[in-house]
Every structure is written in structure tokens, then in C-alpha cells.
Amino acid sequence: MFKVSPKDEIFFDFFVATAENACRAAELLEELMINYVNVREKVKIIEEAEHECDKQVHKILQQLNRSFITPIDREDIDLIAKELDNITDNIESTAHRFNMFNVQSIHEDAIRLAKLITTCTKEVKALMVELKNMKKSKVLTEKIIEINRLENEADDIFRSAITKLFVTEKEPLEVIKWKEIYDYLENTLDVCEDVANIVEGVVMKHT
Q: Among 53-57, 67-71, 93-97, which stretch is predicted with the lowest mean pLDDT?
């Protein structure tokens, strides 16, 4: 049997660092939407957080190319890295739409989804912390379940918000703008759940 060296376990540290970037981007998006001023400058900061996430993912893929033995399957490392990156990509894409669409005020349901994204990314980070000790962790499964619960809660908010949008909004352009923003917010939470589902599969294979 090959043994995984501490050097190869660095993948788990990279996962945590990438998840931390997602948490920071989520907090920045929530703050942007709650305190909706200086939008262009705040979007720029979120963009920088996304670039940092890209750098972390690049480190993971470089390490993957150099490693003969990996702590979990190579395809799972690749999937986890790319899905973590997708979380921050979706956050950045959401933020850019406030500039692109010249949004003047924020819907309350959108803020509720942004708060859920902040909460969910923190759970994703905790999941990455637990992944390194998956065979001994007592809370890893709980984190997966919680992320799934948060995504289900977001689905309910999303459906309600879209219904409200089409019933109450009279301006077609506003409907188009906000439908797309809500889609990106909801997709961000979907990707968080994708990460949890990948980890659940990893745990099944390795415990």
C-alpha cells in the first residue's frame, strides 16, 4: 500500500483556503446588497476575491499534476477545486449584474438569499476542514445535511421571489433584470450543495 505523505495532504489545506475566499466573497456580496452604496467599488473588491480564488485553484491543479499519490481520488480533487471556484464565480457574476443592469434598489428576497449564501459558504468551509479527518470526523455528515437544508430553504425563497416578481412588477425590463439576478443567487447555493454532494461521495469511498 502506498502511503500519503504530509506534502500530499496539502490538498486539504488548499481546499480550506479556497473555501475561505468563497466566504469572503459571500460576505462582501451581502454587505453590498444591505448597504447599497459605492456599488462599483464594492464590485471591484468582489472581483479581486474571485481572482484570489482562481489562484488557489491553480495551486491545487499544479499540485495535482506533481503528485503521484493523492489522499483522495484525483478526479474528486479536481471536481472539488472547480466547484469551490464556481461558488465564487457565481458570487462575482451576481455582483457584476448590479452594475450592468443599473440596479437602483435591492429586493428584500435577494438579501435573504445573499445571507443564506454567506451562511452556506461558512458551512462549506467547515466541511473542507473536516474532510482531512473524514474517517474520524463526527460532524462531517451533519455539515453535508446542513448545506442541503440551506439549499432547500433557498429554493423556497427563490420560487416565492420569482412568483412575486412576475405578479407585482409591471416593468418588463425589471422582470428581466431581477430574474437573472435571482437565478445567479440560487445557482450559487446549488453549487454549494454540489460541493457537499461530491464530498459525500468521497466519504462513501474512503470510510
A: 67-71
Helices then strands, each counted (H, E), the chain: 6, 0
What is the distance in angstroms between the CA of the first residue and the CA of the last residue of the chain?
16
* Integer Rg of the chain from CA: 18
**What pLDDT, in 10s, does the model give residues 113-138?**
999 999 999 999 999 999 988 888 88
- Provide the CATH number for the domain formed by 10-206 in this structure: 1.20.58.220
Q: Map out the domains of the chain as residue ranges.
A: 10-206
> For the whole model, what pTM was predicted?
0.94
Asked if residues 125 and 192 have their Cβ atoms less than 8 Å apart, the reply is: no
In Å, what is the CA distance from 187 to each residue of 44, 48, 158? 21, 21, 10
